[in-house]
Amino acid sequence: MISQRKNRQLYIDIQALATLALMNEGILHPIDKLMNRNEAHEVERTHLYKDHAFPFPFIIAPFGEKNTQILKNTQKGEVLDFVVDGKIRGHITTQEVFEVDKKRRIKQIFGRYDESDPDIQLFLRRLGDYAITGDYTLNFDDIKIAKQQILDAKEKINAKHTSAVMLSAKPFHRAHERLIRITLEKTDLLVIFLLKPYKDDVLAFKLRQESLEYFVDNYLPKNRVVIVPFENTYIFSGYNNAILESICAHNFGCDKLVLNRNHNGMSMYYDQNEAKSILNTYEKLGIEVEIITEFVYCNQCKTLLSSNTCPHGQHHHIKYNSKALMELLKAGILPPAVLMRKDISAMILSRIFPDRFENVQKIYDAIFPNSGLLESHNDEDFYQELMNLYQTTSLT
Q1: What does the alpha-carbon distance between residue 255 and residue 189 come to, in Å, rounded to a whole number?
Q2: Is the pLDDT of residue 280 over 60?
Q3: pLDDT band at 201 (very low <50, low <70, confident <90, very high)
Q4: Which residue of 73, 203, 310, 361 shows the fewest CB atoms closer than 10 Å?
Q5: What domains appear along the chain, each with residue ranges and CATH number?
Q6: Are strands 274-276 and 52-53 parallel, antiparallel or unpaired?
């Protein structure tokens, strides 16, 4: 229950609230509390907590002058309210307050200290001078709801094996489809964790979720796939995110996590001609991690395949680069259907550029075949029919 007393307040953002909720719901197990100074130093030294792997100390250091002044004179046992966007969302009973070495903290998260890095700049703007530890209570149910969603899906089909993939889907493209289908072939239930951004993005999370749900609803067996919004908070922004995602997937109830070799935080390297990643340096993650090779479209094989199984060189390979696809979409250009499913491209463009055309119905009727009857069409219909024309080959 949230405290009704008039407590002093700590101002945090939704990312900090979500991160605290991940711990509260056991998703960051073995982490079961905010670490004090000694525990933080020990985890930094060993990368272990209670004999389990964890890459850095789990602390909260709220940013801002008001927070700093409050924490500097907070006494042990004092109750402070967590305030997010003007609303009380929880409270913490102070156990200890200690000073944070910001440079060291940045290195723990990112593996380096580079103030020119935009992600590090963003992190610095939200990292305070003092950390607080103690028991806390939250009013935030998103993580609890996600846990129950997975449990219900497992019980519904009596799943013995549950695999997970982590996707940003910015945007959702054909290589994502292949990754999902390959994973689904080897498991009873597939959990797709759709990563929620910790900063604003051109492609809104709601639209990414809508496009992924559309694919699952129309092209996959629905009862074997569950989409879970995943709080991709600031602690996942560094080079440890593959490790953290493995820990989280395991604690959400998955026994296998499938990652692409190009996934952020993999830190791939070769040891005696064997491909390894940062995951090889950690034991006791509690989950099988499969690393999938990059998918490409070969213009000789005429299909989408793993680069490991194609005999042709890179000069024949069309790559699924999410940033490049986003540049096309931001410019209002339909990506070729070999890269993105046309109905998903149409959905995204119609949302990014609402009411783009002065009279889309007039253009539609003037170009595309029709039955002669009056039919109403929107921007999304227009983009789909336009892609159909792009795919026409009789005159090319």
Answers
A1: 10
A2: no
A3: confident
A4: 73
A5: 8-140 (3.10.400.10), 145-292 (3.40.50.620), 297-390 (no CATH)
A6: unpaired
Bond into 30 cis (ω within 30): yes
DSSP state of 293: P
Length of the chain counted residue by residue: 396
Answer whether 353's CB lies under 8 Å from 379's CB. yes
Amino acid in the structure at residue 162:
T
Tokens 């004092």 correspond to 78
- Confidence band (pLDDT; 50, 70, 90) for 355? confident
Q: What is the pLDDT of residue 4?
A: 54
Nearest to 241 by CA among 56, 13, 117: 56
Question: What tens digit of pLDDT does each residue of 169-195 get?
Answer: 999 999 999 999 999 999 999 999 998
Determine the 3-state secondary structure of 214 from DSSP. helix
Q: Which two tokens stand for residue 253?
A: 């109830």
- What CA–CA distances, in Å, run from 53 to 35, 49, 173, 300, 385? 15, 6, 33, 45, 52
Query: Which residues, 6+ apart, have CB-to-CB distance to 110 below 8 Å?
Result: 117, 119, 120, 123, 237, 238, 239
The dihedrals phi and psi of 105, each to the nearest 5 degrees, come to -65, -40
